[in-house]
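Recap for those who missed Tuesday's class. We walked through two folding examples back to back. For each one, the amino acid string is listed first and its predicted structure tokens come directly after. Nothing is annotated here on purpose, so try labeling regions yourself before you check the end of the notes.
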Amino acid sequence: MYYIYILANKKDGTLYIGVTNNLIRRTGKHKQNLAGRFTKKRHVHKLVYFESTSDIREAIYREKCMKRWRRQWKVELIEKDNPCWEDLYYDII
């Protein structure tokens, strides 16, 4: 499986969109500041949204599309299933 995910530093805060084949490991690296300068510098560690697909090409395409979306569309996507912007990481481990 491949995962498209959104991290945030707080409700209505900075957003980061990524793709991975191991959501637990990748999110854990973000939480430990081992996964890139953008998330480390801005303290973007909360997993607030994710979806999965079995096709890597589909996952990459979806990630690229979501990165081009208006911010409001991303917020609406998050709040549809996670209105309080809870950290979903602890639900998946």
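Example two. Treat it independently of the first, because the proteins are unrelated.
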Amino acid sequence: MEARDFIARYAGVYEHSPWVAERVAAIAADDADTERLAALMADCVDNASTELQLELIRAHPDLAGRAQVAGELTADSALEQASAGLDQCTPEEFERFQSLNAAYREKFGFPFVMAVRGSDRAEILDTFAARLQNDYDLEFETALVEIHKIARLRLDAMGANE
């Protein structure tokens, strides 16, 4: 696969961060299976500058947030949030998400990121509240780990280089 085709196909694996696919294209465009591609992309992110990593984290939407309500999520994010029932929150759950989103952003300066596929709203809210107690460095690293999980799930759904 040519680099431009590779980039076009995989630019959305990392939310609003096509730079990951751009940097990996020269290495992975011809022979990467899903496992290798996931590893190469994760390594690219892990070796990026802290500033670029922070931009990547900040590119993620709030869970059950304004972007979801306004229909402004990427197709992948919308599917992921819907798979966890975040599009069906009760008014009380929605209010709790809004409160946690605000507290989390206030404390850390970036959105709460969790690979929500396979989770339910109660589990996500419990995880959200627990992670709000962490320090900045732990949450920064946890966000990157969760972003890698999301990317892997997206690659699996795409069938990677099939």
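Answers for example two:
The chain has two domains: 3-54, 60-153.
DSSP finds nine helices and no strands in the chain.
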